[in-house]
Amino acid sequence: MSIITDQMLNELALKKSEFSTIIKMIGREPNLLELGLFGSLWSEHCGYKHSKPLLRMLESDSKRLLVKPGEENAGVIDIGDEFAIAFKIESHNHPSAVEPYEGAATGIGGIVRDIFAMGARPIALMNSLRFGSLDKPQNQYLFEGVVSGISGYGNCIGIPNVGGETIFDDSYDSNPLVNAMCVGLLKHEDLESASAGKPGNSIILVGAETGKDGIHGASGLASQSFEGDQEQRSSVQVGNPFLEKILIEACLEAAATNCLDGMQDLGAAGLTSAAIEAASKSNCGLDIDINQVPCREENMTPYEIMLSESQERMLLFSEPKHLPKLTTIFEKWGLQITVIGKVTDTGNVRISNHGQIECDVPIKFLTSPPEYRLQGIQPKWIESARKFDFNTLEIPTSAPSSILERILSSPNIASKESIYQQYDHQVQTNTVLKPGHDSAVLRIKGTTRAIALTTDGNGRYCWLDPFEGGKIAVAEACRNLSCSGAQPIALTDCLNFGNPEKPEIYYQLEECIKGIAAASKIFDAPVVSGNVSLYNESDGSGINPTPIIGALGIIDNANLTTQIGFRNEGDIVFLLGSEKLSNDPSSLAGSEYLKVIHRMVAGKININLDLESKVQNACRELIKNEVLNSAHDCSDGGLIVTLAEACIAGNIGFNFDFNLPKRWDASLFGEDQSRIVVSTSLENSGTLRRYCDSIKLPYTTLGKVTDGNFNIGTLINLSISDLVSMGKTI
Fold first, then answer.
1. Whether residue 94 lies in the annotated active site
2. HEC profile for 6-59?
3. What would the pLDDT profile of 611-629 be if each residue is shown by its tens digit?
4. What are the angstrom distances between the C-alpha of 344 and each of 275, 284, 326, 614?
5. Of 45, 94, 322, 425, which one is the catalytic site residue?
6. What are the C-alpha distances in Å from 367 to residues 16, 224, 273, 280, 362?
7. Model confidence pLDDT, tens digit, residues 135-154
8. If you write DSSP's letter for every residue of 619-647 in order, what string do you get?
9. Contact between residue 511 and residue 470 where contact means Cβ atoms under 8 Å apart
10. Is there a contact between 307 and 270 (Cβ–Cβ < 8 Å)?
11. 3-class SS of residue 616
């Protein structure tokens, strides 16, 4: 009689068909421990069962890549002078929905460990957050808890949090998205691998003791639909940022000794994934003595120990002869170091408990989850939303200034200063551009260079058209980098979707990935790492499809960095990418204006990637030649929001030089892509015009920077203090 119940399978997110496959693979029914290993490693979170076939569309052979995407804890990209950047974005959505503070905090801890596991020193954090309306107490609770968790953990570990984004939409009710990105710096020679090395190596566990927190985090919590069950709190990890800081320093010191053959973070699925995936990478086996694992709770079972996702732990692989040196390092930092087993040539993972073998399973089976290539179906709402006749959309009768106030005060547009003020963004003293700009910029000490970082995504666009939305997410992220003067060189993505087993959701996932792949090729910016977070839904309702793009750019001269704010009275303001302002109401498709003022999401979105590339190249070239005094991406909220933000950032006025067309709402609030608002001195304005004419780039002269008000023709005349008040923090 089988000891495996349907409830056990459900806790591990294993299908009955998958259980049958496991029995056929190993020639018998697995015991509970073995089932736990399969459940964790075959989970969507670890095994990518529904997404792996689609993710292959993102493969790249860029010459800057130092590791193949998906094969290590993070992507690594060459930035010149023997320096490299390791970076990755990852989700902690489901844990944050259950316990927002610890869920967000341990999300930070986990992504940081992914980075220093590569031998890189973490130098920056960013985050991309999504919540439901703050009018609902539950969403307010989640929002406050997540932000507190990010600041509470991140501020303790000495890594600057340099920016990100926070968006609010009803689709994220009870399903917050908490995506954290970390960036690390290393020399090529310092690169570490998540490898077990060779037979005979010791398996070494360092850091915190193992507890019962986080069990079924990867399988039961992150790999099936979330229903808000607070009983799942035990699946959420508990973090200790002070221990993490010590762990960073100790592990980097150990890596510098050249005594390690591999280093692996204990994240999702804990010891199970860390050990078995490392062994799989090396085509080796493992012998693990479960009794050697230091535990902080008595009488923990092998199942609990192997599946625990307790934080602040790392797994090292090294020859036994190096153990004295490694022990000296970790004991100096006050950290436990324990040999829990050895690497073998058997190809199996064997787990012993008091001398008894509790598990003996081929690793190749554990790391070969099934792949599901499904047939997606276009959601019915897409065609109806695209067919909306914008000519029926009435021009508001309210004063344009009141419309602007409603847009600027929208939580999606309003200043996020109240959020990022809680984050330490100056620690390590590398931050050139602080949060609030299109991208963050950090100098690379010892060089003339800097890197630029940003995150971007728009679930509303992807709801209307996942293919175009995927392209736009990449384009906007790269545009943010270009506005600071940075050349985009690499991307990381976090793909947040509902249940992929539903044909409509699978369609969204596939089309978004196709869009991301198409855009990444245009910008020669490969997707080097990332994460898939699926099953983001509750009560049968899924989130908007939300691919988040983290983008990395390089600036050869750190002194040539451009900010968003207008700087000098008399500067001429141009719009790159368009030779006239739109009089077409269809430009309002998917816009913040359409949502806030008309309470609808509709229209056909699109982007011309060739024009986009041309606009970005021009912006970078003009910055490089010191023609521009400012540059700001024209995106959410449209042209008028971009202009208002430039005035607020520079604490200076602006005068619009010409009359607006009849559809002033489309001109001011339309969100046409491939546009950048720039300013330049009167002396350099001719240079800008001649350059744009020479490359046949469309542009429009918008007006002048003034020492007065924010003046939009005859429609709007506001003081800068009025603008600041309108864009008050949430």
1. no
2. HHHHHHCCCCHHHHHHHHHHHCCCCCHHHHHHHHHHCCHHHHCCCCHHHHHHHC
3. 999 999 999 999 999 999 9
4. 12, 6, 21, 54
5. 45
6. 18, 20, 9, 7, 9
7. 999 999 999 999 999 999 99
8. HHHHHHTT-EEEEEE--TT-HHHHHHHHH
9. yes
10. yes
11. helix
Q: Mean pLDDT score of the chain, rounded to an integer?
A: 93
Task: With H, G, I as helix, E, B as strand and everything else as coil, classify residue 609.
Answer: helix
180 sits in which H/E element: strand 177-187
Inter-residue contact 152 to 109 (CB < 8 Å):
no
What pLDDT sits at residue 231?
46
Asked if 437 is an active-site residue, the reply is no
In the numeric block, the tokens 């990449």 are attached to 474
Q: What is the percent of the chain with per-residue pLDDT over 70, rounded to a whole number?
A: 97
Q: What is the CA radius of gyration of the chain?
A: 26
Residue type, 477: A
Residues comprising the chain, all counted: 730
Amino acid at 407: I
Place of tokens 């970790």: 330
Selecting among 92, 322, 425, 437, the annotated active-site residue is 92
Which of 37-51, 422-436, 461-475, 697-711 has the lowest average pLDDT? 422-436
Mean pLDDT of 548-562: 95
Which residue do the tokens 């299109």 mark? 438
Q: What pLDDT is recorded for position 325?
A: 97
Instruction: At 37, list the tokens.
Output: 């290993």
pTM (whole model) above 0.85: yes
List, for residues 250-281, the tens digit of each pLDDT value: 999 999 999 999 999 998 889 999 999 999 99
Handedness of CA 576, 581, 586, 587 (dihedral sign): positive
Closest Cα to residue 384, out of 588, 602, 591? 602
In the structure encoding, which two tokens stand for residue 229, read together? 């069950």
